[in-house]
Design brief:
The complex is a heterodimer of chains A (about 55) and B (about 230).
Chain A: H1 2-50
Chain B: H1 2-30, H2 44-71, H3 74-105, H4 114-131, H5 139-154, H6 156-166, H7 188-227
Classes of the chains: A mainly alpha (about 55), B mainly alpha (about 230).
Amino acid sequence: MSLNLLFWAYTLIWILLAGYLGLLGLRQQALTRRIDRLRARLEGQIAGRQEPS
Amino acid sequence: MAFRTTVRSISLWAALTLCMLVSIHGVFLDAPRERVMGDVQRIFYFHFPAALGCFLAFGVVCFASVAYLWTRERRWDHLGRASAEVGVLFCTMVLMSGPLWAKSAWGAWWTWEARLTTTLVLWLLYVAYLMIGLYTDSREQRARAAAVVGIVAFLDVPVVYFSVKWWRGHHPIVLGRGGEGGLSPEMWPIVWICLATFLLLYGILVGLRMSLARAEDIVLDLEETLQG
């Protein structure tokens, strides 16, 4: 019983830590996608301005 | 610049891994078995540093909140949010490991005694702090509201700390006068190593979260400029 509780306490701590790091990774991925979209929009705007009228 | 940042980042993670390994070795192999509670007392070695880490994190939130209201510089808001997230993470660790220890030591997962109840309130307060961002689109408004909550919520930290002295419950007193945590002198070096590990973990996580918040802010600025 005692060892079982000890095992679960440390397991939960590691799961929480891994979960938080995973969450940060997901946020970073989402940010990278937003930056990519932003870059595409900017490139589109620059290309539109450079087109000869 | 990027190279130096990468080297620093790798060094920090390597140091954290080393500290974690030393801590785990200390907790499970070096620490003596506690006479009354037995092996379950080893939960203490991560439970206690996580609790002190969450106090530190919420102290930083309070400091950053005051600094934000004073200067209106966004970096203080970033620091506050980053520290609050890590503080909530540490507080969650405390609230999850505590009941597992309590079940063995007291025979119940949870009792509504002062230390446990005030810690739960603390966790709820900072979860509310983190949720403020969900209800407003204006960044300035959100940062201002969060700063006010960050200062008010910190009032609960001394209440949690002194709760075991003000309202005597089951929870042992580890620090200060009247400390009766039942720690033998051989246990303290391992406690210090675990504290150092959690301090390093706190620094790394806050650094990561702050750089993410800065990047999010820059992207938001750019999006607003493009829309305008």
